[in-house]
Amino acid sequence: MRLLARAIGFGLLLLAALLPVGAALVLLALDGPQALLALGPAGWVSLAAGLLLPGCAALLAQAWATQRAELAELRRALLRQAEAGDSRHLVLQAMLAESREQTSLLQEQVRLQLGQANAGRRQAETLQALATETRLARLVAEWDMTGRELAAVMAAMWRLAFGWRTAEGPEGRGAVELPLPAGAELGLAILRLLPATPEDMACFQVDERFVRQAARYRALFRDFLDRVPETGPVNRALFRDMVQGRLDARLALLPRPNHAITVPPETLAAE
Predict the structure, then answer these.
(1) Assigned domain for 169 exists
(2) Which tens digit of pLDDT belongs to each residue from 1-10?
(3) For residue 217, which of 14, 23, 27, 153 is within the disulfide window of CB 3.0 to 4.6 Å?
(4) 3-state DSSP call for residue 177?
């Protein structure tokens, strides 16, 4: 239909353009040039208008048709761009929704990781506290056993120094058994017995049996002290400040045992 309308319009335009030319040719054929001269200015203007107006109308029609085609093409391009923009907008919305979901998943994973890290840290702290408590309990148990052994050695040293019985008293009173000092008094009694300086200790007369008991005491105390940590709530300084630790430092001033002297094991304590 559009091609048919264009063909009809072109035919009418061609007819309108040829009609003035045909009229001019008829006048020339009938009366010659005089017929054209007889038309006068008004006729000439009408004839010129008849010749030019169809061309002008054709140009205007062509310009209008071209403009309309361009506008239609522009409209179609704008529609395509709008559709592409809508598609991109939908894609961006989908990507944004997916990004939000991924962000939510990542946040949830981070919360889970933080929760697991906190739980792991609490478990580590609990295990560390249990390990510390276990070490302290084991250390206390070892110190209890070592304290009993040290007490037995201190009792032997005290008996070597003071004996088992008192001398016979006047008026026929017999000798009585000397009681051991109780608790920490036993270590304090031995501390008061021994000199506090190396010079005085060099002049101190001491039995070889006492020296060997002192060496045994120091070996027991040092063996336990090697298992005690340097720092912490229970450390080596704590035990060195006890009576047993002070006695160990005082016994270090004694001479070393003379193993050239034979001492029967059953005589290492006073009879």
Answers:
(1) no
(2) 556 656 666 6
(3) 153
(4) strand
